[in-house]
Amino acid sequence: MTVETQAEAPWSVPVRLDEALRGPQVRRLAPDAEARARIAKALNLVGLPAFEGEVRIRPWSDGAELDGRWNARAVYSCGLTLEPFEDALEGSFRLRVVLPDSPHAAPAEAQDELEIDPDADDPPDVLEAGTIDFGAYLVEHLSLELDPFPRKPGAVFEPPPAEAPESPFAVLKALRKD
């Protein structure tokens, strides 16, 4: 996750890691209309009439594990007709977070060779200020589900008819009398 300050995030719901580690918890979250407008603007949407999520948090090693589910109604601008249209979206995520001094935090120094295992779990996110921002995680995962080329249902691209190239002899042909 990209680290943002709360002033830059369109919606922020910060929770201190030590508060989250008190035991398993479930948080239900829904931004108000003003926050949804900021989220829609940040994600280049026409609007975001509905957005809600649920995040389950539980202790994991020396950090926490988050399981999130969300659903939203996003208003796109059609890439063909520029008309607005609404689409229902939903998603889920699972991630882990740790403090910078955790042995599970990814090393900061670059390695010459990088081995990637596509089946392995993602490394935990490192919390710089010891705060988990539930709102930022929900917005991030919403942004990953957005269609980069939205098309209104039924909109069809029809290319303009191809114009035949004009022959250099077309002018002479018009002067010819048969």
- Helix and strand element order: EHEHEEEEEHH
Any idea what the radius of gyration is? Answer: 25 Å
- How much β-strand is present in the residues? 25-35%
Spatial sequence of strands, sheet with the most strands? 2-3-4-5-6
Biggest β-sheet description: 5 strands, mixed
Count up the domains: 1
Count of DSSP helices? 4
> What is the mean pLDDT?
86
Shape: elongated
> Which structural class should the secondary elements be placed in?
alpha+beta
User: Based on DSSP secondary structure assignment, what is the total number of beta strands?
Assistant: 7
Uncertain stretches of 5 or more adjacent residues: 1-6
Oligomeric state of this protein: single chain
Terminal Cα separation, in Å? 76 Å
Helix content range of the residues, please? 10-25%
Main attributes?
single chain; 178 residues; alpha+beta; five-stranded mixed sheet; 32% strand; 4 helices; two-stranded antiparallel ribbon
